[in-house]
Predict the structure.
Amino acid sequence: MSEKEFQIIYNQHYQKVYRLCMGYFKGNDRIAEDVTQEVFIKVWEKSNVFRGDSHISTWIYRITVNTCLMYLRSRKLKKEISSEKFPEKPENNPDHQSDKEQQLKLLYDCIYKLDELNKIIILMVLEGLSYDKIAAVAGVSEETLRVRIHRIKKSLTKCVNDE
Protein backbone atom coordinates (compact mmCIF):
# COMPACT_ATOMS: atom_id res chain seq x y z
CA MET A 1 0.00 0.00 0.00
CA SER A 2 1.41 3.36 -0.97
CA GLU A 3 1.44 6.36 1.34
CA LYS A 4 -1.18 8.01 -0.84
CA GLU A 5 -3.50 4.99 -0.58
CA PHE A 6 -2.97 4.87 3.16
CA GLN A 7 -3.77 8.58 3.47
CA ILE A 8 -7.05 8.02 1.61
CA ILE A 9 -7.96 5.11 3.89
CA TYR A 10 -6.98 7.13 6.96
CA ASN A 11 -9.13 10.09 5.90
CA GLN A 12 -12.12 7.87 5.09
CA HIS A 13 -12.05 5.83 8.30
CA TYR A 14 -10.48 8.01 11.00
CA GLN A 15 -13.71 9.45 12.45
CA LYS A 16 -15.49 6.09 12.49
CA VAL A 17 -12.56 4.37 14.20
CA TYR A 18 -12.26 7.22 16.71
CA ARG A 19 -15.98 7.11 17.58
CA LEU A 20 -15.84 3.34 18.03
CA CYS A 21 -12.90 3.81 20.39
CA MET A 22 -14.81 6.54 22.25
CA GLY A 23 -17.55 4.00 22.86
CA TYR A 24 -15.09 1.53 24.32
CA PHE A 25 -13.39 4.10 26.52
CA LYS A 26 -16.57 5.79 27.62
CA GLY A 27 -15.82 9.19 26.21
CA ASN A 28 -12.19 9.40 27.34
CA ASP A 29 -10.87 11.22 24.30
CA ARG A 30 -7.20 10.93 25.27
CA ILE A 31 -7.31 7.14 25.36
CA ALA A 32 -9.56 6.98 22.29
CA GLU A 33 -7.11 9.15 20.33
CA ASP A 34 -4.13 7.00 21.39
CA VAL A 35 -5.85 3.75 20.48
CA THR A 36 -7.09 5.21 17.17
CA GLN A 37 -3.48 6.01 16.30
CA GLU A 38 -2.46 2.46 17.26
CA VAL A 39 -5.15 1.11 14.95
CA PHE A 40 -3.83 3.06 11.97
CA ILE A 41 -0.25 2.07 12.76
CA LYS A 42 -1.41 -1.56 12.60
CA VAL A 43 -3.31 -0.91 9.37
CA TRP A 44 -0.12 0.53 7.83
CA GLU A 45 2.14 -2.22 9.16
CA LYS A 46 -0.22 -5.08 8.27
CA SER A 47 -1.49 -3.76 4.93
CA ASN A 48 0.57 -6.42 3.14
CA VAL A 49 -1.38 -9.21 4.89
CA PHE A 50 -4.83 -7.87 3.97
CA ARG A 51 -6.11 -10.53 1.57
CA GLY A 52 -9.14 -8.69 0.29
CA ASP A 53 -11.55 -11.44 1.42
CA SER A 54 -13.70 -8.71 2.94
CA HIS A 55 -14.10 -4.99 2.43
CA ILE A 56 -11.21 -2.95 3.85
CA SER A 57 -13.57 -1.17 6.27
CA THR A 58 -14.54 -4.55 7.77
CA TRP A 59 -10.86 -5.37 8.25
CA ILE A 60 -10.21 -1.97 9.87
CA TYR A 61 -13.17 -2.38 12.24
CA ARG A 62 -11.90 -5.81 13.27
CA ILE A 63 -8.47 -4.31 13.99
CA THR A 64 -10.16 -1.52 15.96
CA VAL A 65 -12.22 -3.91 18.09
CA ASN A 66 -9.21 -6.14 18.78
CA THR A 67 -6.98 -3.16 19.62
CA CYS A 68 -9.57 -1.70 22.00
CA LEU A 69 -10.02 -5.04 23.74
CA MET A 70 -6.26 -5.59 24.02
CA TYR A 71 -5.86 -2.11 25.49
CA LEU A 72 -8.55 -2.78 28.08
CA ARG A 73 -6.99 -6.11 29.01
CA SER A 74 -3.40 -4.93 29.11
CA ARG A 75 -4.08 -1.77 31.07
CA LYS A 76 -6.74 -3.37 33.26
CA LEU A 77 -8.85 -0.27 32.82
CA LYS A 78 -12.27 -1.88 33.02
CA LYS A 79 -12.79 -0.91 36.65
CA GLU A 80 -11.20 2.51 36.25
CA ILE A 81 -13.29 3.36 33.20
CA SER A 82 -16.55 2.08 34.65
CA SER A 83 -16.10 4.35 37.67
CA GLU A 84 -14.90 7.28 35.58
CA LYS A 85 -17.47 9.90 34.67
CA PHE A 86 -18.23 10.86 31.09
CA PRO A 87 -16.98 14.34 30.16
CA GLU A 88 -16.35 16.35 33.30
CA LYS A 89 -19.35 18.59 33.77
CA PRO A 90 -21.25 19.45 36.90
CA GLU A 91 -23.89 16.72 36.87
CA ASN A 92 -25.96 18.16 39.69
CA ASN A 93 -26.57 21.42 37.87
CA PRO A 94 -29.03 20.94 35.01
CA ASP A 95 -28.15 24.39 33.65
CA HIS A 96 -24.72 23.04 32.66
CA GLN A 97 -25.89 19.89 30.98
CA SER A 98 -28.63 19.71 28.39
CA ASP A 99 -31.18 16.93 28.35
CA LYS A 100 -29.61 15.62 25.15
CA GLU A 101 -26.15 15.43 26.78
CA GLN A 102 -27.63 13.67 29.81
CA GLN A 103 -29.42 11.16 27.58
CA LEU A 104 -26.26 10.56 25.57
CA LYS A 105 -24.24 9.96 28.74
CA LEU A 106 -26.90 7.60 30.03
CA LEU A 107 -26.94 5.72 26.72
CA TYR A 108 -23.15 5.29 26.77
CA ASP A 109 -23.34 4.17 30.41
CA CYS A 110 -25.87 1.51 29.39
CA ILE A 111 -23.84 0.49 26.33
CA TYR A 112 -20.78 0.06 28.53
CA LYS A 113 -22.71 -2.45 30.66
CA LEU A 114 -23.28 -4.74 27.66
CA ASP A 115 -21.08 -7.77 27.08
CA GLU A 116 -18.22 -7.26 24.62
CA LEU A 117 -19.86 -8.66 21.48
CA ASN A 118 -23.11 -6.75 22.04
CA LYS A 119 -21.12 -3.58 22.70
CA ILE A 120 -19.22 -4.05 19.43
CA ILE A 121 -22.46 -4.64 17.54
CA ILE A 122 -24.40 -1.65 18.88
CA LEU A 123 -21.47 0.75 18.46
CA MET A 124 -21.20 -0.27 14.81
CA VAL A 125 -24.99 0.09 14.38
CA LEU A 126 -24.70 3.62 15.78
CA GLU A 127 -21.95 4.26 13.22
CA GLY A 128 -24.38 3.34 10.47
CA LEU A 129 -22.49 0.30 9.18
CA SER A 130 -24.43 -2.15 7.05
CA TYR A 131 -25.60 -5.36 8.66
CA ASP A 132 -23.42 -7.48 6.37
CA LYS A 133 -20.28 -5.60 7.50
CA ILE A 134 -21.28 -5.80 11.17
CA ALA A 135 -22.02 -9.52 10.81
CA ALA A 136 -18.59 -10.08 9.24
CA VAL A 137 -16.80 -8.24 12.06
CA ALA A 138 -18.87 -9.92 14.78
CA GLY A 139 -18.52 -13.35 13.19
CA VAL A 140 -22.27 -14.08 13.11
CA SER A 141 -24.87 -14.51 10.38
CA GLU A 142 -27.02 -11.54 9.36
CA GLU A 143 -30.12 -13.25 10.77
CA THR A 144 -28.41 -13.81 14.13
CA LEU A 145 -27.25 -10.20 14.00
CA ARG A 146 -30.80 -8.91 13.49
CA VAL A 147 -32.03 -10.89 16.50
CA ARG A 148 -29.11 -9.64 18.62
CA ILE A 149 -29.71 -6.03 17.61
CA HIS A 150 -33.38 -6.33 18.55
CA ARG A 151 -32.43 -7.76 21.96
CA ILE A 152 -29.71 -5.15 22.49
CA LYS A 153 -32.12 -2.30 21.72
CA LYS A 154 -34.68 -3.80 24.09
CA SER A 155 -32.02 -4.11 26.80
CA LEU A 156 -30.78 -0.54 26.26
CA THR A 157 -34.33 0.84 26.35
CA LYS A 158 -34.92 -0.92 29.66
CA CYS A 159 -31.60 0.30 31.05
CA VAL A 160 -32.20 3.92 30.02
CA ASN A 161 -35.75 3.89 31.37
CA ASP A 162 -34.67 2.34 34.69
CA GLU A 163 -31.98 4.94 35.33
